[in-house]
Amino acid sequence: MDSLTTHTAVIIYQMGKVGSTTIHASLEEASLPFPIYKVHFLSDEGMAHAVEFHQKTLKIPWENTPHIQTSEFLRDKIQTEPDHKWKVITVVREPIMREVSEFFQYLHSMYPELLDEHGNIEKERAIKLLQTRLMFYNPEKNYTCRWFDMEIKGMFGLDVFAHPFDTAKGFSIIQHGSVDLLILRLEDLNRNFSEAIGQFLALDSPLEIVKSNVRSEQKRGSTYEQVRQELTLRESICRKIYASTYARHFYAEAEIEQLIQKWSG
Question: Of 137, 109, 96, 93, which Cα lies nearest the Cα of 227?
């Protein structure tokens, strides 16, 4: 692992709803001696999607969105400063739970019909809509399944799926040109975060995890937890979702079988 220098920067660069706020808070708390950025998109396709989503769905002008401004800044630096060393941290999450979390994140703006007159979420209708969404899950078009090819490969030319992932440890480090990439699994953060970050950033002392990734879940309260507990899918749907290249790369066969049993009841 190359030593860190003043020409090093850390990018927390990952898809939404996989714990980026926790990673960012943990690194900021440690007062590390290099800049830390957090983004979800850098690629041309990703940026176009983010701008459209903010303008049409969230009704927010993209020019006023700080993380899109950060993305524009980093895109320029990556493209114009080839000698800059990038330490990229990304996180993966099992696909069904990520879909559920994203659904609740944007429920009020995308599915207002699921709210009663008091603004409370109608649980049964939310479950049925989630079941319908997941019934039509298409790995070839799904955001989660496409993110690494669209973003990491698109920006750095690094094919993550060409490198093995250590499912036993729950993290892996890949070196490729100007980028060192740390891939963490969200489900394993409590047990491996300190070891993984310490190794990746060559830290002299352990770095503790700061839990900050449950904001939207807390906001939704018990309904979110009830949907998580009560959502069930047909086994055939689960098998289709977990047959994706994404799922099979980051989760072992036994882990996938456990997830299928969990969601199919």
Answer: 96
pLDDT higher than 70, residue 47: yes
pLDDT band at 108 (very low <50, low <70, confident <90, very high): confident
Determine the Cα–Cα distance for residues 47 and 35; give it in Å rounded to an integer.
Answer: 22
Element (H, E) at 182: strand 179-185
Question: What three-state secondary structure class fits 235?
Answer: helix
CB atoms within 10 A of CB 194: 17
CA distance 219 to 85: 38
Nearest to 265 by CA among 240, 229, 216: 229
Q: DSSP assignment of 14-61, as one string? A: --SSSSHHHHHHHHHHTT-SS-EEEES--SHHHHHHHHHIIIIIS---
Could you give the CA distance from residue 71 to residue 119 in angstroms, rounded to a whole number?
34
Distance (Å, whole) CA 232 – CA 118: 27
- Pair 206, 223: CB distance under 8 Å: no
Question: Torsion angle of alpha carbons 218, 222, 228, 231, nearest 10°?
Answer: -150
Q: Do the beta carbons of residue 4 and residue 87 sit within 8 Å? A: yes
Six token digits for residue 207: 């770095």
- The span from the CA of 82 to the CA of 59, in Å, is 36
pLDDT in tens, 146-192: 999 999 999 999 999 999 999 999 999 999 999 999 999 999 999 99
Alpha carbon 226 to its chain's center: 23
